[in-house]
Amino acid sequence: MELVATTAAQSAMGMLLGKLGGLIAERYALLGGVRDEIQELKDELESMAACFRDVAGIGDDDGQKEQMRTWMKQVREISYDAEDCIDIFLHHLSKHSGDSKGLARHGYKILDFLRTLKVRLKLATEIQSLKFRAQKVSERRLRYKLDALDMPDNMASSSNYVDVDRRLPALHGDESPLVGMAENKRKLIDLLNKDDTQLRVISVVGIGGLGKTTLAMAVLNSREEAESQIRSGEPNILIRAGQPNIQIRAAVPVSKTYDLRALLEYTVRELHRRPIGQHEDPLIEGIGSWNISKLLERSREHLADKRYLVIIDDVWRSTAWEQLKVAFPNNAKGSRIVVTTRSDEVARSCSSSNGDVYKMEALTEADSKMLLFKTVFGSETIPSAYQREDVWNAIIKKSGGLPLAIVSIGGMLAQRKNEPVDNWKKVIKRIPSELQKDKVLDGMRRILSLSYNDLPYHLKACFLYLSVFPEDHEIRRGPLVRRWEAEGFISEVHGLSLEEIAKDYFDGFVSRSVVAPERLTSSSDIRSFKVHDIMLDIITAKSTRENLMSTLGNHQHSTVGHDKIRRVSIHPGSRDNYFSRASLRHVRSLTIMGSTEKPNDITFSKLKLLRVLDLEGCRWSLSDKDWKEVCKLSLLRYLSIRRTGNERLPSKLGKLKELVTLDVRQTKVTHFPKSITQLQSLQCLLAGEYVHFTRTHSVKHFAYKKEVVKIPPGLSKMKALKRISFVDVKGKGLEALQEVAKLSQLTRLCLIQTDPYASWGKFSYILSDLNNSLRYLSVMQDEGNCNIPGQLDFLEQVRSPPVFLHSLHLLGRLGSLPSWFPCLSNLANLSLRHNYLGLDMVDKLGRLPSLISLKLYSGSYTGTELSFTSHQFPVLKQLVIDNLPNLVKLSFESGAPGNLERLTLYLPRGSAASVLGIRNLPKLRAVELFGINDGHVVNTVMEEVNSHPNKPIRVTRDDQPPPPSS
């Protein structure tokens, strides 16, 4: 496992090395003799980076020497200071460049030299100081022999950690399966009992501490239960009729680090294991000297004519299973193998089929309380002195249904039964600090830390960065990715966009069960997730210690020992005057979440190195003085005032030359200042607001009745723009819109015309010019008067359609789909509203080869019947039918659409529509009813749902009001 400390340090150093290399490559004449100093500093830091890589893999933070940890801290601080120095220097260079275009070349050089003399002298002094510090740190490493090879590998093996998980039943005094395991056990046994004589592999997947090993062992050791059922004449739950009894049962722990030969020897010994007191099987005499080939041969020979059930526990890599599976023959006797893992990818790789993956869920609240009471009191009965629902609820919330967390916290409280129960709540709040002190909690921390330690190197800093968010916060992909980019944690690589890179990162988190998905996109990608409270405590402690993030609020983590605070996140409930003794002038990231008033200690004029400023959800507005100070933050790259009370932006916003993201969504800001066109680094310009009508957010509508932002002329100057959403093109906005065609990097364009009678002008030509770059397009006409013909007729005039379009949203009268619609072979998401399309709509849309999500909103379709046949919509996964008053019949032929997973319906009160064929959708997983539906319609749909072969199928009833319609 890699050293945790390398995460923040290597991230900081990686960003810096790129900037130093670029600075040298540019051959700035202004650098003079400093250029050699920069090269030497870069060489020194590259050597340190190589040392970091050598150190990686020795052990986690518990195995580090304090000397090594101190050395890494010093290197990290040098990297941060050097990056700040270079960024400030480059800013001053860019500020003076181009000021003297009218002067002769020689005169320009003299003037530029004089203007930058002070800056160059300061750079020379600081670079020399940094180089000196770097050399001293390197000498110190050699002086104290801080070499990777000298570091003791005294960290307990992952196998030992997992043994704690295996001992969970014993921890609460019960050798039977854990409370709440009965249902999990039944479902797993059902998977094992599928009629099949061939060898089948079933995977059990979930986060560490969820009880996967306990569940697997409960099934393995259920022989007594099976034998009692045989005696009573009941069918054996593990032995199907006509199949022989299980002759061999074995459990093989793999863990993260293993030696293949030793693992195979253990496996063979387990397969030949005899009752205690009997001699070892003579067939394995001398096994200690066997090679891998002989061990595999013995295993296969021994199992060739026997029915077996084997648990392969704690598999971290698919390669481990590939090496081990050779030992288990497919002897057509109905043998079964159960693999436990934390990784979805490993689970899919090991299993015989997709249906053989069992994803474990957290305990319910009721089961969590039962387990907690048994852990603390030894029974499910609570003594009268401990009847405190607030205390128990706080513990259950903290544990998040994780058996390991419940048992660990309960074990800690069991030792405090002589204390007043009021003290227990204080103990729960101190869990982040207790994780390092309490022996029981430390075992839990080690198990959960394994999932973090298993993350690839490039994901670790990004995962620690999640400590910026408070408990139970839904972390959205878009803002997080843009923050990562602003911090320098990720950057585009050839052939991959930030969105694609971020998707890989998110999938990596989910696959390793370190986060829990909250919402999915229509393409089944992760839109948002949450971090388990206990896991958040762990990474917050790591992040604070490594000075990646200092969080203030519900979780107070000491920054003692850090010379300079680099990133600050202020959560609701934080204390004022916390920074009275600490300097904020080195802070590069400031997040203030949901505060009711501006913290007294924050003065933006002191935050000259700030790259990220996120005020989302704050209930106060920036004053004129605040804005004046913010506009002087020359290094600022990310600015979010989303969901704040701000009503305007400052006229001098254009001074933020490095700004990449500006987010003013869900505010009352209605105009961008003229100076915004000076933001030539800006990539994301985000405004507007959506209203959601279902709990799953599957049905949403842009809040067009609220004020939307207008863009000033000069947009074409902003060459870096990639995302524009949402802006009003009313009036002079159309003139600005013509400049959009010059934005060659634009991938996302969201526009609304708030004047129902206004023309879209030559927008068709603009779309033609952007046909190679656009991936997301939303065109909306104010729906105040949707009876006006020809609102979106300009779409028919598009000469070169955006063939790479992935998502398209159209609101406005159309009459028929444009003739070029069949060319949209990459279109995955389509939403239509007030388009008044006829019968040919379904046939045209049904032929789109990549369409995954189709949302038909009010007025999108004028037909009375909507039928889905077997030859249409080959990959459709999501279908939304919202308020189609003319609809009489909605039907699905057998198996059509064959991949549909989610169906959302709102049929208005009084609708005569019938819904037929839901039971014919083979992959349907969820049906969602929203709005105020007639009882008859609901009953009809429920009858279809109840007869569906996919059991259980989730049905959501949402009684929110229906969306507005004209």
The gross shape turns out to be: globular
Number of strands: 30
Question: What's the CATH H-level superfamily name of the domain at 158-359?
Answer: P-loop containing nucleotide triphosphate hydrolases
Poorly predicted regions are 1-6, 56-64, 98-108, 148-177, 224-243, 961-966
Q: In percent terms, what proportion of residues is strand?
A: 5-15%
Q: Based on the coordinates given, report the CATH architecture of the domain at 158-359.
A: 3-Layer(aba) Sandwich
Helical/strand content category: alpha/beta
Query: What is the terminal-to-terminal distance?
Result: 60 Å
| Arithmetic mean of pLDDT | 78
Describe the protein in words.
InterPro entries: Apaf_helical, Disease_R_plants, LRR_dom_sf, LRR_R13L4/SHOC2-like, NB-ARC, P-loop_NTPase, RX-like_CC, Rx_N. GO terms for molecular function: ADP binding. Keywords: Coiled coil, Leucine-rich repeat, Nucleotide-binding, Plant defense, Repeat. Pfam families: LRR_14, NB-ARC, Rx_N, WHD_DRP. Belongs to the disease resistance NB-LRR family. Mean pLDDT is about 80; it is low at about 1-5, about 55-65, about 100-110, about 150-175, about 225-245 and about 960-965. The protein is α/β, with parallel strands linked by helices. Helix content is about 35%, strand content about 15%. The protein has a 17-stranded parallel β-sheet. The protein has a five-stranded parallel β-sheet with strand order 2-3-4-1-5, with helices on both faces. The protein has 28 helices and 30 strands. Among the domains are: about 5-150; about 160-360, P-loop containing nucleotide triphosphate hydrolases (Rossmann fold, 3-Layer(aba) Sandwich), CATH 3.40.50.300; about 365-445; about 455-550, Winged helix-like DNA-binding domain superfamily/Winged helix DNA-binding domain (Arc Repressor Mutant, subunit A), CATH 1.10.10.10. The longest helix is centred in the first third of the chain and has 39 residues, at about 105-145.
